UniProtKB/TrEMBL annotation:
InterPro entries: Metalloenz_LuxS/M16, Pept_M16_N, Peptidase_M16, Peptidase_M16_C. It comes from Pelagerythrobacter marensis. Residues 1-50 form the signal peptide. This is Peptidase, M16 family protein. SUPFAM superfamilies: LuxS/MPP-like metallohydrolase (SSF63411). It comes from the Bacteria.
């Protein structure tokens, strides 16, 4: 089975410290009903859907009946019957599947079994360069026509149309919205031309190599140096140590059309290709399209076997029970401390059997046990901020167990010793049955939820899963299979079995390590090697009490309140509810997303609520408020009470409101609502989470000068908000002064302030949920009003100025960034205009990409964004941003001014407008198939019904416009004043000055 299917069993509550392995999950569920039903039919653009063709015969290449599909050869894992597999005479393999999530979309993946590990020494970077060149020009696409062509078909560049190159493969990705028969046929045709016959000439190389070099440059700096040292140390002696997909400047600039063509001929062959298509189309039709456009493809020249990726080989003297080999210490003054060591084993292809997967599941459970203990040790005030264990098969080069540690101070030896002691305990003594039962419950709820939600799995995710399985040479399994295998092996998960697997995880042919530190002289490679060779005594203090805690034993929030009003909101079947204490709720009970309920609680004043001296506690709030606990439950108790439950307690500070949010399920909704209400009613103020948040913020701050992007993340909002101290990132002095007592002093009154709105969308029982709302949010005491001066606050924008704000970073000398921004507005009344501004921003962005990337290669991914705070009367902006070379900063400002001037002076063309509005139309059509879309659109509507009315015009606002309307918007916002300019350049350099900023002039007679 694909390891992704068994590796996402995170703890129920997301209370862990931020670490390197905390993936998020995004779902795109099935439509509840057609979006167009909400809109006046006369205003809805006509559908492009064509007549569905008659059914076609199944291709002979499909592996049906008793024939074992190619992906299941050598496996006894039950096949996922929803996939159809085929293998053509030319060796090309494919997988197709019908999937209606989202409706009318088809996700296509083309995987070429060639990545950076397939390159020769003089070809470094060619696999990635080939990805770029395939998009540049091909048999059916003229130069630079791929992006606009798919935009006209409704695909958004960068999300719907994309590609990736890894050490082991290159994958081309297309999520085609509104996949009419004509659009689908055209897409397969274009993709076939890209794969089979890209135009590899010197002109295209000259155009594309600068773009790749810009991408390489933007990835550079301290973080990239750390990655490079880590790669070279951990994979020493293997090709992976020297083969990163981005390549080298020498090989890229030295690339010739003949050499790139040779790489293409060697690896872009049908026998190296897998095509996956999943979408709202008959899978037989998808198979026919694969066969039609790729069936006669033949490779050029003889077949070439993939090179050996090698094995981890210990250096002389590393043998023995503790085979410590290569170690390295990297000094990076602007990077936080981190230590990684790994137990390296050879990777071997396996027969992906049920027994093998039972072993993987046992390995995963063993890791979860250790990670929970490591987290408990850190929470208790350990010597490290976080530590985590993770087994991974890396690029078919090694099977390794990685241990990652973030020391809190220069005493890295103590942090390493503490972590190794916790692991030593896991290696010496079996876990208790209670600990195993706790992790089993956590895994089970993840796998069971996946079964519940299988009908709303996005086709793009399903296609990606096939690609991942092919890459690691394993199978795919239906969610029911994963759950059944796991539940069927429960009796095998004994303490001794878990101990045995734990020991295998921490055995290897060689142990390698890298330590990154900001301090010169703090460590060297020999000291690191010696520390890893030291014996450590097992530390059992991190073993946790696994006794369950029951919600039934927790105190009531208060006296249950009453539902004083329940009425239709005026949209679909959504309901507005008001409780006696003033709490309002939006409820939409529906079964469109089985097993899912989205919950969002809005309260308070958000950023507006803080005084200027409170910035440090605002920063610490998102890290520590939830972790500080509630009532009698600290962090550990919150974890225990949520064992085997699908619950969360996510917290966010927004511009005008605070939010709690969670994805839960029907069985856990009551207790989820209790958690949210209890955090407001009976907050706990444990000190350790605040102290730990301070440590995390301190470590993060130290890295915020390493690159232009890091400086922007630290300072951009501060400067765009006219240097308001509230928006400043707290520096080390501010963090040092922050205390747990000060944290409580700031946050305690804020939790009591401002109206509360609860939104619950998904599969739940209305009457039972109303009763729960009475007992939880309805039992809260009256809220403190938001002070009038706080409610009236809006962010400022810098006064007009011809000067450019110049900041400096301490990264590479060839890196810079530039921003130009114009103020717009905010509020509900002009919400339709803000949506039209999104069209204008996309027009601007397309032109900026063309100017900075396509023409000059100055920037890899410039972009233009539009923000409009709905809850505030002002504070919006259009902002253009790019990372580029220092000498190209004036060119960026000149290009932005030129584009703005032209948008003011001349309306865009109809075709240019269609390339923006059609992707927006398709994006909205897809997004509107999910409950969370409606939740976000309607938040705040219980107190402001105008928001409901504006939802009715949403599709039109984003997609129906005219060139003249765009020109009018450009005149209103881009010609009113000079854009605010900010540049980030390397320390020791002066900004190359271009023309002074000036207002964009509107044409006469405006």
């Amino acid at each position: 089975m694909n390891k992704a299917a068994i590796g996402d069993s995170a703890h129920s509550l997301s209370l862990q410290a931020p670490g390197p392995y905390m993936p998020g999950m995004i779902y795109l569920p099935r439509a509840v009903r057609p979006f167009a039903l909400l809109l006046p039919l006369a205003l809805v653009a006509p559908s492009a859907t064509a007549q569905v063709p008659a059914p076609v015969a199944a291709p002979e290449s499909l592996q049906t009946g008793d024939e074992v599909p190619w992906i299941y050869r050598g496996s006894d894992v039950p096949r996922d019957e929803e996939w159809l597999f085929g293998e053509m005479d030319n060796g090309l393999r494919y997988a197709v599947r019908e999937n209606g999530v989202p409706p009318r979309q088809v996700s296509i993946r083309i995987r070429i079994d060639a990545g950076s590990l397939h390159e020769r020494d003089d070809e470094r970077g060619f696999a990635h360069l080939m990805e770029h060149l395939s998009f540049r020009e091909s048999k059916y696409l003229g130069p630079a026509m791929a992006i606009p062509t798919w935009q006209r078909l409704g695909a958004t560049f960068g999300s719907d149309t994309n590609a990736e190159t890894s050490p082991t493969h290159t994958v081309y990705k297309l999520d085609l919205p509104n996949a009419t028969p004509q659009a689908l046929e055209e897409s397969f045709k274009l993709l076939s031309g890209m794969m089979r016959e890209p135009v590899l000439n010197e002109a295209n190389l000259a155009a594309e190599v600068p773009i790749v070099l810009a991408e390489k440059r933007e990835r550079g700096g301290a973080a990239e140096r750390v990655v490079e040292v880590t790669r070279k140390t951990l994979f020493a002696g293997q090709p992976l140590a020297e083969r990163m997909p981005i390549g080298t400047e020498a090989t890229l600039t030295g690339a010739t059309a003949e050499a790139v063509q040779g790489f293409h001929d060697r690896w872009y062959r049908p026998e190296n290709t897998v095509i996956v298509a999943a979408g709202d189309v008959d899978p037989i039709r998808l198979a026919q399209l694969v066969e039609k456009w790729f069936g006669d493809w033949q490779g050029k020249g003889p077949h070439v076997e993939a090179p050996s990726f090698g094995d981890p080989v210990p250096p002389p003297g590393a043998q023995g029970d503790n085979p410590v080999g290569e170690t390295a210490v990297q000094v990076e003054p602007d990077m936080p401390r981190s230590l990684t060591y790994a137990f390296m084993r050879p990777w071997r292809q396996v027969n992906d059997t049920i027994v093998y997967n039972e072993g993987l599941l046992t390995d995963a459970l063993a890791q979860a046990l250790i990670n929970r203990r490591l987290e408990a040790r850190a929470r208790a005030g350990g010597s490290y901020l976080y530590a985590q264990v993770q087994q991974d098969d890396v690029s078919r080069s090694t099977d390794a167990t990685f241990v990652t540690v973030a020391p809190l101070s220069g005493d890295w030896q103590a942090a390493l010793k503490d972590v190794r002691a916790v692991i030593a305990d896991a290696l010496s003594t079996p876990p208790s049955e209670e600990e195993i039962a706790r992790e089993v419950a956590e895994f089970d709820v993840v796998f069971a939820s996946t079964v519940e939600q299988r009908s709303v799995m996005a086709g793009s995710k399903l296609a990606d899963d096939i690609v991942s399985a092919v890459d690691i040479r394993e199978t795919v399994a239906a969610p029911e299979t994963v759950l059944n295998v796991f539940r069927g092996m429960r009796d095998k998960l004994t303490p001794d079995a878990v101990l045995e697997h734990t020991r295998s995880l921490f055995a290897g042919d060689v142990v390698r390590a890298v330590y990154v530190t900001p301090a010169t002289g703090e460590a060297d490679a020999q000291a690191l090697k010696a520390a890893l060779r030291e014996d450590v005594a097992p530390d059992a203090s991190a073993r946790l009490d696994a006794t369950p805690i029951s919600f039934a034993d927790l105190p009531a929030i208060g006296e249950p309140g009453d539902v004083v009003n329940a009425e239709p909101l005026g949209l679909l079947g959504i309901e507005r509810v008001e409780l006696g204490n003033g709490v309002t709720a939006i409820l939409w009970a529906n079964d469109a997303e089985p097993g899912r309920i989205a919950v969002r609680v809005r309260f308070g004043a958000g950023m507006r609520a803080f005084d200027q001296g409170d910035a440090v506690y605002r920063e610490l709030g998102e890290r520590a408020l939830v972790q500080s606990g509630l009532g009698e439950l600290g962090q550990e108790e919150l974890d225990r009470i949520s064992t085997g439950r699908k619950m969360a307690l996510d917290f966010e500070i927004e511009e005008s409101v605070f939010t709690f949010s969670a994805q839960t399920r029907k069985a856990d909704l009551d207790d989820q609502l209790y958690l949210f209400a209890a955090k407001l009613a009976m907050p706990r103020w444990d000190e350790n989470p605040v102290l730990r948040a301070k440590a995390a913020a301190r470590l993060a701050y130290e890295s915020l000068a390493t690159s232009p992007g890091a400086v922007l993340s630290r300072d951009l909002e501060y400067y765009l908000r006219d240097r308001d101290p509230l928006y400043a990132t707290p520096d080390l002095a501010m963090l040092e002064k922050a205390t747990p007592a000060g944290f409580r002093e700031v946050w305690e009154p804020l939790l009591k302030q401002g109206p509360i709105e609860v939104a619950i969308f998904g599969e739940f029982d209305r009457e039972a949920t109303l009763e729960t709302l009475r007992r939880t949010f309805g039992a809260l005491p009256p809220r403190t009003p938001i002070p009038a001066d706080v409610a009236a606050r809006t962010p400022d924008f810098p006064a007009p100025s011809a000067d450019t704000v110049v900041l400096h970073h301490r990264g590479d000398a060839n890196q810079a960034a530039a921003v130009v921004a114009w103020p717009t507005g905010g509020g509900v009344d002009r919400l339709p205009e803000s949506r039209q501004l999104e069209i204008l921003a996309n027009l601007f962005s397309n032109r900026l990409i063309d100017a900075m990337r396509e023409r000059a290669g100055a920037s890899y991914a410039p972009q233009v964004s539009n923000s409009w705070p709905i809850d505030l009367a002002d504070g919006g902006r259009i902002a253009a941003i790019a990372q580029l070379r220092p000498e190209d900063v004036p060119a960026f400002f000149a290009a932005a001014d030129e584009i703005a001037t032209d948008l003011v002076a001349n309306p865009p063309t109809e075709d240019e407008l269609a390339r923006v509005t059609e992707p927006l139309r398709q994006l909205i059509n897809r997004a509107s198939t999910g409950n969370t879309f409606w939740m976000y659109q309607l938040e705040g509507s219980t107190r402001d019904p105008r928001r409901v009315q504006h939802v009715r015009s949403l599709l039109n606002d984003y997609t129906v416009t005219t060139p003249q309307a765009m020109q009018a918007l450009a005149r209103k916002y881009l010609a009113a004043r000079a854009g605010f300019r900010l540049a980030v350049i390397p320390e020791g350099q002066e900004l190359v000055r271009g023309p002074a900023a000036a207002p964009v002039q509107a044409p006469a007679g405006r």
